[in-house]
Amino acid sequence: MPHEDLLITEQCGSLGNPIKYTRQGQNGISRREIAQETVADTLLQAVLGFFREVLLPHGYPDSVSEDYFDYQLWDTVQAFCSTITGIFTTHAILKGVGVGNVEASALSATITWIMKDGTGMVGRIMFAWWKGNSLDCNCKKWRLFADLLNDGAMILELCVPHVTHLTTEILCLSTAMKSVVGIAGGATRASITNHQAIKGNMAEISAKDGSQETLVNLVASFTGIFLINYFTDITAQWVVTFLLIILHLYSNYQAVTALIFKNLNDLRMTLVLKSYLIVNAVLGPERINKMESVLLGFGTDVEKFCGFKIILGRPLRKTLIYYNYDELRSLTEVYKNRKYLLVPDLKRRAIFVTFEKGETPQDVIAGYYNAVLLGLATCIYNRVNLDIYSKRQLHQSTPVTRLNTFMKTNHNSLDVPNNIPPHLLLTFNDFVDQETDMFFTALQVNGWKTDSHSLYLDEWRAQWRDFDKRSL
Predict the structure, then answer these.
(1) Distance, CA of 57 to CA of 205 (rounded, Å)
(2) Which H or E run includes 20?
(3) Residue 470: per-residue pLDDT
(4) Where in the numbering of this chain does the Protein root UVB sensitive/RUS domain appear (predicted)?
(5) What is the pLDDT of residue 471?
């Protein structure tokens, strides 16, 4: 092979064919695409390239998160199953409201349909008001819950032809359930799209997701028409629907567990801290996401290993009734150089973390970590035994062993549980500063994002600094 005077090579993404620019003749430039060797390979690559351009984000896979393919694959399977199941339920609903029945009243069917839609509209408004601010915090859980609820609604709709006297009630209930599905599913899909858009291409990823879903729904619709005509027996239809629902739930579970979020929510923060406090090691996003529960109501609770619930951005009115003026004044002095204020509530076993306006994600993460350390320190101070003490590595320097050493000579001399005194809190803050710096370093080294978070943070903010310099 003659020597090539190579000038430039370029490639569209990591899947496109490389192109070489070399010297040609005395002073010319030659452009040559390095394509597949056989005609069949070239044709296959052309077809795959076409579908890649139509259905996948530009620059795939470099323009999306590492979990994009796995999630979209299982999401495609669940959408396929859901569309076919929807055809069976639509058939059942139409039979239930009297389509094809000469004795059925058009007015009755119209009223039923209007009541069904009206219930769904009210349901969407109520659910968005009730749980809208927690959907980002528990994205995986609400995504899976939405699909569980959707399947439950479809099962109810399949029953409509068998209990025609309850058609209106069943359709109103199923539509209310589907309204929750619409809000929870749509909101969590937006959160997932934002996670996948690593190059700020959220709009394109959303558009291509719509194209993928449209294609899947089109194929599933024709498949559903074939199945509903092939399985005319009601028992066979129930069996097919049941199998589709099982596959739908399985694919949804696989989809949400394939996601690898790199920012911290309450559950991921708890799992990270549990490992870090005991063995001084922060587990990476992939391992923590595999450990994260995707079922609502399940998962590791921070209170189990630090002795306190951690509550961010909530009002302090019910907590401050246990403090007098001097105690509260001393507490604000302790945190006068911080953007967060920690207020322990021994009665409810909770530590309230309130922030100044304009807090950063780093402030929130630091405040949460400080609250966990304060909870552990308060338990040590009051001689409360926690499981995390027995699991600590005695011959290894960890946050728990360092905290035990710091609190070694500081214990409550009274029989009644009490807060750590202000003078000790001031020294404790110096200890916390060192620990927080090490924690943030460990997070960043292991691939966690600290410039964003999904911790549940309410909207209450406070001001406690520099009041002496103001005129009240």
Answers:
(1) 6
(2) strand 19-24
(3) 47
(4) 45-277
(5) 45
Nearest one of 411, 380, 417, 266 to 388, comparing CA atoms:
380
pLDDT at residue 312, rounded to an integer: 96
Tokens standing for 137? 């915090």
Question: Which H helix or E strand runs over 10?
Answer: strand 6-10
Please, are residues 138 and 191 in contact by the beta-carbon 8 Å criterion?
Answer: no
Between β-strands 28-33 and 19-24, what pairing exists: parallel, antiparallel or unpaired? antiparallel
Q: How many CB atoms lie within 10 A of CB 349?
A: 16
Give me the DSSP letters along 292-343: S--STT-S--THHHHSSEEEES---TTTGGG--HHHHHHHHHHTTTSSEEEE
**What are the helix and strand counts (H, E) for the chain?**
15, 8
Q: What is the mean pLDDT of residues 277-305?
A: 92
Helix runs in 97-233, H state only: 106-131, 139-158, 167-196, 202-230
For tokens 């710091």, what's the residue? 406
Most confident listed range (37-41, 271-275, 381-385, 394-398): 271-275
Give the C-alpha separation, 371 to 344, whole Å. Answer: 9
Reported in sequence order, the residue ranges of 336-452 that DSSP labels E, i.e. its strands, are: 340-345, 350-355
Q: Does 82 have pLDDT greater than 60?
A: yes
Bridge partner residues of 88 (DSSP): none
Q: What is the C-alpha to C-alpha distance for residues 34 and 10, in angstroms, rounded to an integer? A: 11
How close are the terminal C-alpha atoms of the chain, in Å? 86
What's the token pair of residue 161? 């032809």
The one-letter amino acid at 165? H
pLDDT at res. 310: 96
pLDDT at 215: 95
Mean pLDDT of 427-436: 94
| Residue that has been written with the tokens 């999630």 in this structure | 71
Q: How many Cβ atoms are within 10 Å of 233's Cβ, its own excluded? A: 8
Sign of CA dihedral 78, 84, 90, 92: negative
Q: What is the mean pLDDT of residues 241-267?
A: 96
The sign of the dihedral angle between the CA atoms of 31, 36, 42, 44 is negative
Looking at residue 378, its pLDDT comes to 93
The answer to whether 351 touches 284, Cβ cutoff 8 Å, is: no
